[in-house]
Amino acid sequence: MTSSGLVLSPTAPLEDVSADEQDLALRLAAADPAAVGAVYDQHHRAVRAFASRLVGDAAAAEDLLHEVFVALPRAIRGYRFESSLRTFLISIAVNHARHHVRAASRRRSAMGRLALEPEGNSQDPEQVQRRKELASLLTRALDTLPLEQRVAFVLCEVEERTSREVAEITGVPEGTVRTRLHHAKKKLREELSQEGLG
Amino acid sequence: MTDDLLKAATRALREESAEPSADGQFTRARVMASLHQGKVRRRTRLAFILPLAACLAAGTAWGTVTGRLPEAFRALSEAVSPSPKPPAPPPKKAPSPLAAPAPAPVATPVLEETPAEVEPEPAVSAKPAPSASFRDADGDLYRLAHEQHFVNHDYGRALTAWEAYLKAAPGGRLATEARYNRAICLLRLGRDAEARQALEPFAAGKMGYRQNEARELLEEISR
After folding, report:
1. What is the model's pTM?
2. B residues 80-99 near A, CB within 8 Å?
3. What residues in A contact B30, CB-CB < 8 Å?
4. Please, which residues have CB within 8 angstroms of residue B136's CB and are 6 or more apart in sequence?
5. Which of B11, B17, B39 to substitute to test the interface with A, most A CBs within 10 Å?
6. Would you give per-residue pLDDT tens digits along chain A (198 residues)?
7. Could you tell me how far CA B119 lies from the centroid of its own chain?
8. A12: closest CA of chain B, how far (Å)
9. Are A49 and B17 within 8 A, CB to CB?
10. Chain A residue closest to B10 (CA)?
11. Distance from C-alpha of A42 to C-alpha of A190, rounded to nearest angstrom
12. Which chain A residue shows the shortest CA-CA distance from B8?
């Protein structure tokens, strides 16, 4: 245990964690605001991409991103140097996602009912438009999943992470991750076929 | 077919959210501002809580050593209690010629027109050195009442605090001043009948303190 409260396990696999990241983590634990800025600059794109895929809403993703980095100085005390800082940030996002996912899902549902779904940019090529529609379709289907299955699907399928990595992020055994993924895919297939697109 | 669609939709979601966001810098600024505000809030809390905790610890230790902790605690809790206490009975010696037909209390402008010197501001530090009858706890209660009256101008709390002091030290060195200040509080609160009752002994010269001011105040009330 360091003076800053971080747990430095001598047996932890440190090959994924660079010396720079260790230094950053120690500065974060010492409540150095510049360290938060530095971590943000390095990792915000990855965290935003995950947040956006998970909640399916750009504004909600920004809110989740904000929450992750505000929570970081306190959350870093639980960092064990067993995974990269980026993986740790994603795990914070997962822990804070529930409220944002629910809010974004409600918003989508209301907008769908009121036919207020934002229209695609008419200047985009047809392929871009099709991509937007598909992404939107999947996001709506994801709204029907429990959060745990949603997280598993986004991390494994959309972000193409290994089940070991997802197990680290979510703090559950790999077998559980695979089970959640299986159920998620089954439910998503059903949703897509109900949409008449299957 | 559904599998293909799921794969295509998954790929689409991946590509859609991989595009850089224009909000990056804005969110960064939000994060830094939130962290700064959190730090300021924590510092402010500490600035209040630490001195209070130190005072409480010192006071408790003092009370324990002198054996006066229960008494001081009771008096203090009465002084700061938000529930209004019934007015204290007038001093035993006080005549009450005007006590019977009291008009309904109305907010009186009396004190707005009254010269400032009518309301005394006894500086605690200017008082003579405490005697045996003016013990430390009573001094604290007096200071508390004085602060509510002359610093915070919270006459409701000041009244409760003066009464707490008088209860703790009815024959104390500053009891006369406390009674007079209590009467002023009653006036400020528009409780004219009680104020009149409290001022009578002063106006009659029985208290040997602020006789002229008390007479003037009674005349104002009677108008």
Report:
1. 0.51
2. none
3. 66
4. B130
5. B17
6. 444 444 433 334 434 567 788 888 888 888 788 889 999 999 999 999 999 999 988 888 888 999 999 999 889 888 877 788 899 999 999 999 988 888 888 877 777 666 544 544 445 567 778 888 888 889 999 999 999 999 999 999 999 999 999 998 999 999 999 999 999 999 999 988 887 655
7. 18
8. 30
9. yes
10. A158
11. 39
12. A134
- CA A148 to CA A170: how far, in whole Å? 9
**Separation CA A76–CA A4 (nearest Å):** 10
Which of B1, B3, B7, B10 to probe the A interface (max A CBs under 10 A)? B10
- Under DSSP, the state recorded for A77 is G
ipTM of the complex: 0.73
**Residue A14 in tokens:** 């440190």
Sequence-ordered list of residues with C-beta below 8 angstroms from that of B203, at least 6 positions apart, any chain? B211, B214, B215, B217, B218
- Count of residues for chain B? 223
User: From CA B199, how far away is CA B181, in angstroms rounded?
Assistant: 10
Give the residue among B46, B73, B52 at the shortest CA–CA distance from B62. Answer: B73
Q: List the structure tokens of B116.
A: 């400032």
Q: Under CATH, what is the fold of the domain A122-198? A: Arc Repressor Mutant, subunit A (1.10.10)
- Write the CATH number of the domain with boundaries A1-118: 1.10.1740.10
* Angle CA A127–A131–A133, to nearest 5: 115
Residue B145's identity, in one-letter code, is A
Count of other CB atoms within 10 angstroms of residue A69: 26
Q: Does A120 touch chain B (CB under 8 A)?
A: no
